Amino acid sequence: MILDENNLIIKEFKEAEAILHGHFVLSSRLHSDTYIQCAKIFENPSRAMKVCALLADKIKKELNSSIDLILSPAIGGIVVGYEIGRQLGIKTMFCERVNGKFELRRGFEIKKGEKILLIEDVITTGKSSLEAVECAEGEGGKVIVEASLIKRNSETKLPFPVISLIELNIQNYSEEELPSELKQLPITKPGSREYLTK
């Protein structure tokens, strides 16, 4: 799906001014002419509850196993992870980067064998997801499913099921593949991960 104007979820994101257009460098270091700023959804608590309720319902319908806890990578996944945890009644925590690597801090603990629902706001390449999995499994847990508000590309594959509120097909470009019209626009770097560009 490419930003179907009639889709009710897309309408919520547009009304929240969460769909941005321009020249963006994503946390994955890929370039895009479209950025989904999920943080704008959470400016309005009523909208946040409504959108997360849709994802929570989808998780309940598609999840085939019990879950012990929700883990979200900081920063983008923290609020959506908490809200989904609140609605599903599941313990929730987040991992954060220390020297570029995800770790558990603030007294969070994962017990050996605990089954984990990983939650992100947006999945692009799945790199952050896999880094969060490494953190979880290093603590003895097991990620069995991931959920997100947005999956930017339906072709992105991960080694466990992914439940997304909506899947889009937004074109991403490497530095070498940039179309001429995108090269002419100033770059914006809206993500939370530190990275370098040429």
From TrEMBL:
Residues 40-169 form the Phosphoribosyltransferase domain. Pfam families: Pribosyltran. Keywords: Glycosyltransferase, Magnesium, Pyrimidine biosynthesis, Transferase. The keyword Chaperone does not apply. It is an enzyme of class 2 (transferase). Pathway: Pyrimidine metabolism; UMP biosynthesis via de novo pathway; UMP from orotate: step 1/2. SUPFAM superfamilies: PRTase-like. GO terms for biological process: 'de novo' UMP biosynthetic process; pyrimidine nucleobase biosynthetic process. GO terms for molecular function: orotate phosphoribosyltransferase activity. Its EC number is 2.4.2.10. This is orotate phosphoribosyltransferase. It comes from Glossina austeni. The lineage of its organism: Eukaryota, Metazoa, Ecdysozoa, Arthropoda, Hexapoda.
